Amino acid sequence: MTIERSLVLVKPDGVQRGLSGRILGRLEERGLKLIGLKLIRISDALGRQHYAEHVDKPFFPGLLAYMTSGPVVVAAFEGPGAVGAIRNAMGATNPLEAGPGTVRGDYALEVGRNLVHGSDSVESGRREIALFFSEDELLPWDRDTDRWIYE
Ligand code: IDP
Ligand code: MG
Fold first, then answer.
1. pLDDT tens per residue, the chain (151 residues)?
2. β partners of residue 74
3. pLDDT given for residue 55 in this prediction
4. Whose CA is nearest to atom 1 of ligand 1?
5. The one catalytic residue among 13, 74, 117, 119
6. What is the distance in A from the centroid of ligand 2 to the CA of 149?
7. Fewer Cβ close by (within 10 Å): the C or N end of the chain?
8. What pLDDT, on the 0 to 100 scale, is given for residue 43?
9. Residue of 72, 64, 90 lying closest to 132 (CA atoms)
10. Distance 50 CA to ligand 2 centre (A)
11. What pTM does this model have?
12. Whose CA is nearest to atom 5 of ligand 1?
């Protein structure tokens, strides 16, 4: 499996509810490698760029207000099949359809308060990581446990 990168956001509801550590911890425990991490407040401009594909949707004004309402944890993760692994761990967009054992299935009820973002493709991962991190904020590193996680 090729090594992929994904942007993960713990959305403002996740930070407010004290779930940042749990959400990132699930991905870390799975074996995904953290290569970038920070706490920021998303500006309107950044929110529009990040969710460019949704700007014309009826829910966009609410989505932008939600995403800019408080701090978010911004993480970049790397690993074999990272994009799909993270999407699976997040669960379906609508938490009522998200399976047990997923972040949204375990901790959320509504689509407008679904706790977490993960890139939906390798290309989105590339675009979104470049949007949220400068090159010198990313730190690829050799993890001592890599050989116990990757063959
Ligand atoms: P995703 O986060 O699972 O990739 P997308 O369809 O890309 O889902 O939508 C982006 C975000 O927009 C969702 O995570 C959710 O916060 C919000 N959203 C999507 N659809 C709706 C909706 O119908 N009502 C309110 N918010 C929505
Ligand atoms: Mg999406």
1. 799 999 999 999 999 999 999 999 999 999 999 999 999 999 999 999 999 999 999 999 999 999 999 999 999 999 999 999 999 999 999 999 999 999 999 999 999 999 999 999 999 999 999 999 999 999 999 999 999 999 9
2. 9, 38
3. 98
4. 93
5. 117
6. 28
7. C
8. 98
9. 72
10. 10
11. 0.98
12. 93
Which residue puts its alpha carbon closest to atom 25 of ligand 1? 112
Six token digits for residue 22:
């749990």
Could you identify the residue written with the tokens 């953290």?
34
Cβ atoms of 137 and 35 closer than 8 Å = no
Contact 106, 19 (CB under 8 A): no
* Residue given tokens 């009826």 in the structure block: 58
Tell me, using a 6 A CB cutoff, whether residue 50 lines ligand 1.
no
Alpha helix ranges (H) inside the chain: 12-16, 20-30, 44-50, 60-67, 82-90, 103-107, 122-132, 146-149
Ligand 2 center–CA 83 separation, angstroms: 12
